[in-house]
Amino acid sequence: MTPDGFTFPDDEEKLVITFDEGVPVAIDGETVTLLEAFQQLNRRVGAFGLTGREIYEGPGALALVTAHEELRKVSIGRVSGEVRLVLHRGNAVVNSARDERALYDFTTGATFDRSVA
């Protein structure tokens, strides 16, 4: 699954994983089953050298756990939203996470009435 470090792509790849109630349901806007998500992510993420520290390889699972943990930071309850990952030379870095039911709403801005302070 994972090539040696000399054959990793020089370019980065970006992907978007969509979760619904904690389950990955789409990758880059394409609806996938859970099995298809693992298969596609193993292939795509594995090409960039992301592996675990154990004796087995599961780059797709590592990418899903990374994305899911980041989405949990902004969500209430079971996560439903999108996480954007950037893959590059052994790393899967979260670029952004979005959930419609997020803990913070950036559109409300500063709503504290400063005159009462």
UniProtKB/TrEMBL annotation:
Q: Which GO terms describe its biological process?
A: L-arginine biosynthetic process
Q: Which InterPro entries match?
A: Arginosuc_syn_C, AS_cat/multimer_dom_body
Q: Which superkingdom, per the lineage? A: Bacteria
Among the GO molecular function terms of this UniProt record, one is: argininosuccinate synthase activity
- Arginosuccinate synthase C-terminal domain: residues covered: 7-77
**Protein name in the entry:** Arginosuccinate synthase C-terminal domain-containing protein
Organism listed in the record:
Amycolatopsis japonica
